[in-house]
Amino acid sequence: MRVLITGGAGYIGSHTCKALAQAGHTPVVYDNLSTGYRSLVRWGDFVHGDIRNTTLLASTMRQHSIEGVIHFAALSCVGESVTDPGLYYHNNVVGTHSILEAMGLAGVKHIVVSSTCAVYGLPPTIPMDETTPQNPINPYGATKSMMERMLADYHAPYGLHSAALRYFNAAGCDAEGETGEWHVPETHLIPRVLMAAFGDIPALHIFGNDYPTPDGTCIRDYIHVADLASAHVLALEHLLENGGVLRLNLGTGSGFSVQEIIQAAEHVLGKPVPHTMGPRRPGDPPALVAQAGLAKETLGWVPRTSQLDHILHTAAQWYAATRQKNTV
User: Fold this and answer.
1) SS3 letters for the chain?
2) Which end of the chain is more exposed for a tag (fewer CB within 10 A), N or C?
3) Which CATH number fits domain 2-171+222-250: 3.30.70.1660, 3.40.50.1000, 3.50.50.60, 3.40.50.720?
4) Percentage of the chain modeled with pLDDT above 70
């Protein structure tokens, strides 16, 4: 099938384009390059555009005979969403509405959306399954929850079939080195661990060591980006065959603290990771770990490449190859 990938020039989007191509599908990337990179568009055509341009979206879908959409074009920094919530509501909520309107104009009925564990907020139990109440504690999580609500509301009246994939912490890079992670500024933990280890920043700054966790630092469920990409392909194929409205967690069921990530990185890299400690960052829950059995049951999906050493090894390979260029 021909698939429109909004945000396909970004980290997870580019990996998903590769997975789609490997599965025999044709990706078409739609990206405004505000955070993505043209050099990462290596599979399929490219259209430069903003998701809030409904007219361009609809014409692109018609021109390329699009059969399904995978939507990654959202802002995703928790801290930034707290300090500038308007930016997040405008891009994530208004932008998603524009995509859904364009799909209606073009007659496209199937969409997979990048959602997040942040929709759960402070979960009452760990790990969380899909029945855990949604109670986001930051604007980023709130915008993703609203996106999910739109998808559900569009199903009955408009015949929209959707899957919201609530993934946990995306990490790692393509094992063949064809695409990877590069954000400016970089806020994700594992790349910043690498930056500290390679001496590109003085030290990794840890936000809080007084959380109710064994070592006081936040615990997260890290999933390799290649496993996330495969889930998006499976979800879209499932929708094309079965339709419906899906809400699925994507994670490993195991969590690692910030301190454990540092220790594992030092083992894999064979070098120290300088780090400093500071106060908590607003909007960060103590622990987020997935129960992803429903994704296995529904899609036949299991994380195959999400061992922590593999995540760190592939991330380090990519970082070492790109750090001197200071770009991808």
Assistant:
1) CEEEEECCCCHHHHHHHHHHHHCCCEEEEEECCCCCCHHHCCCCEEEECCCCCHHHHHHHHHHCCCCEEEECCCCCCHHHHHHCHHHHHHHHHHHHHHHHHHHHHHCCCEEEEEEEHHHHCCCCCCCECCCCCCCCCCHHHHHHHHHHHHHHHHHHHHCCEEEEEEECEEECCCCCCCCCCCCCCCCCHHHHHHHHHCCCCCCEEEECCCCCCCCCCCEECEEEHHHHHHHHHHHHHHHHHHCCEEEEEECCCCCEEHHHHHHHHHHHHCCCCCEEEECCCCCCCCEECECCHHHHHHHCCCCCCCCHHHHHHHHHHHHHHHCCCCCC
2) N
3) 3.40.50.720
4) 100
Average pLDDT along the chain:
95
Mean pLDDT, rounded, for 247-264: 97
Q: Which residues does 170 contact at the CB level (< 8 Å), separation at least 6?
A: 11, 12, 188, 223, 225, 228
CA–CA gap between residue 134 and residue 249 (Å, rounded) = 13
Whole-model pTM over 0.90: yes
11 flagged as catalytic: no
Class of domain 189-220+253-322 (CATH, top level)? alpha beta
Q: Which of 30, 88, 120, 140 is catalytic?
A: 140
pLDDT, tens digit (0-9, with 9 covering 90-100), for 138-162: 999 999 999 999 999 999 999 999 9
Distance of alpha carbon 57 from alpha carbon 100, whole angstroms: 10
The pLDDT tens digits of the residues spanning 35-93 come to 999 999 999 999 999 999 999 999 999 999 999 999 999 998 888 899 999 999 999 99
Beta strand 204-207 with 169-171 is unpaired
Write down how long the chain is.
328
